[in-house]
Amino acid sequence: MSEVDSKVPRPGLLKRIWSFLIELIDVLMRPSTVFSLGVLVLAGFVAGIIFWGGFNTGLEVTNTEKFCTSCHEMRDNVFQELKSTIHFTNRSGVRATCPDCHVPHNWTDKIARKMQASQEVWGKLFGYIDTREKFVDKRLELALHEWARFKANDSLECRNCHSADSMDITKQSPRAAVAHQRFLFTGEKTCIDCHKGIAHHLPDMRGVPGWQ
Amino acid sequence: MIRKLAIVLLTVGIAGGIGTLAAQTLSSGLRGPAPLNEEGPAPPMTPMRNSAEKEVRNYPEQPPVIPHSIDGYQIDLRSNKCLSCHARARTGESQAPMVSITHFMDRDGQFLASVSPRRYFCTECHVPQSVTDPPVSNDFVDVDTLLDRATPGGKR
Prior knowledge:
The structure holds two protein chains of two kinds. Chain A is mainly alpha-helical. Helices cover 59% and strands 0% of the residues of chain A. Chain B has a domain at 1-43. The interface between A and B is medium-sized, with 18 and 22 residues.
């Protein structure tokens, strides 16, 4: 055999990968001759639980205030600013944590956002905003991204808690009641149009529509 | 002997006086019943007046008070939340009173296109009002009342 092998030239890498794939598909297509159907079904079921459960747990872990503030970029900048606002402490003790506003709650949208966030992991690894100065310089750009996202989904993350239907404007201050009747109920504007900077400090607002 | 007695008496007198003064409960509107040498409990925070109704000025030059809550309003180098309603171009949508034209004037009396930098920090003069009983009474009367007293029914 070794004589024959030495005479026939070894096929190229691509060709070998290709033949391996063909062989793999061939094996996958063939019915199992070793494991019973019961074992295969059960193993598939258990593996499914482990993988799906693990995936979801991973998703949940990355969706907590603790995870977000484990990076100093978040902890030292935006988290400090959140602390003085009504979304952090208030009379009824309900807190909106980071993902409540920054990650969609709906599954498909959530996965889409999580995939986008891989760019943020890249930014973290390469120190995109690892100093206060860099953060302040990028602040408007970062804020514009979030405002655009809220504008595009009609402030969905606000509306997960605050709904126009359950808003009792008689309990609001006169000027809030007028503004909500005129702009929110008619759908002319969405939450983020007026309520910018309620959870974090504002960037330099020159050039942002509606600001000086 | 008498001199010594006098010194002792004086010392006792001063010490006693200080003690009484310190222990005295001086009930003032601002301090409350807390003794002078102690710090009383902080008064509860009062809610902000939030009726959005204009308040009458006590004298013509008074900066109008803010008739609404301004909790969390950012006024700094980067942005001014007040101007997002009270700026000239924003008043149509907000129906808020426009920043007075006097605020467009720089220190040389020249009118600028927008609010002058020296008038940018609104809360230096304009302040919101707490809903509370004034701790100290006040007998201020406005100029109309004074003129009316001088010449009842006179024109002004």
